[in-house]
Amino acid sequence: MGDSQIDMDSLSGPLRRETVKKNVAAIHISGKLSLLQRKLSNVLLLNAYDALTTAQSHTIDARTLATIVGYNSNDFDTLRASLRALAETVAEWDMLDDKGRQEWGVSSLLSFAKLKNGVCEYAYSPALAQKLHDPKIYALINVHIQRNFSSGHGLALYENCYRFVRTHSTGWWSLETFRKLMGVDGSSYYESFKHLNAKIIKPAVAEVNKSSDIIITPEFQKKGRAVTEIRFLIKSNPQMAMFQIDDSDGMRNLATYKALRGQGVSDRLARQWITEHGEDYVKQKLSLMTEQAEVKSSVGYLSAALRDDYQPHKPAAKAEPSPEAKEAARLRDQQRAKEAADYAARQTERQERARRLDLVEDLVSRRNPTQRDADKQLFMAGLEDDLERENFRVHGWRSALNASAIIAFWQEMEPEAFEQ
């Protein structure tokens, strides 16, 4: 939801074909909401989404709400002020209905909100709830990702690009529309494209590409020498998986990690290689490299060796080996076969663990924020080690250090899901 305005431009491709006459769906959110107020609006909508069109009001534990958004859990004054701001914010839409008829409407963003006995109760007007519930109009934002943002403009741009992730482009927006999306439409300073680009577009694009699961690239159209329209090309962020790599499972204490760092491999790349390939496989390629007479780039050689599975050089045939040499070779082959079997078993185990953690994420996504908070509190209560608790606070249900405990916890909670 909006720091100022949320605009849903024309859909294209398969989505547009599915919506025949739902040509342009635009919901403009007036007002200049702060970054935390924008996050609050997203969390409230996520909490209510499943029952958005069936329940008259929605509830969430107030302390849980404050914690998820980033407020101090005891700062109810700020929470009250933010709820008031959302209730005073106006949502306006102008779109075609299923029969191609024009529909205009206006509503407050929240029809009411109240705090009582530690619970926040709130509601949307029926007309606005219907619009917000349409997945083609509003794309649910990952709350974990929105925590990474430190500016309202960055989060506003992410939200308005993320809803077009399947079509890979936002389509062209006029600069007037873009200024509304960023909440700077009332500023004469940002009438200048030079100022808009330097202070809004470039910083917001940089934050989206650094902090989220998508990478966006702005493109511009001109009339004469003046820029008149902007669009953003969108693709997935291949480094997003790196955000989930566990830094607290002792990886930096491994001899293989230290050897990689000694060869000039960066911290992140060293952890990525060990995570993806396993320590033994990486160690094997390190050993191969040390046998080479000359290697121009350690990082380049290791990257290719891991990718293409370099093997030790086999010398030319020699005289018939002695019985002792044959026995030694047999033992080496036996050991290598055991190591290969162990490696394959670990790979299978890792894949199975990843599959089960994906299932856990799916189960978690079906629960509302209040239930999710209760699940986390219940799980953490069963952790006895401070390191395990801290790791879970940082990585949540993707915590590699707690993977076995997480899977066991959810197997007990949802046994049928794991049986399937």
TrEMBL record:
Gene3D superfamilies: Winged helix-like DNA-binding domain superfamily/Winged helix DNA-binding domain. It comes from Pseudophaeobacter arcticus. This is Replication initiation protein. Residues 19-161 form the Initiator Rep protein WH1 domain. It holds the Pfam family Rep3_C. Residues 331-351 are annotated as: Disordered. Belongs to the initiator RepB protein family.
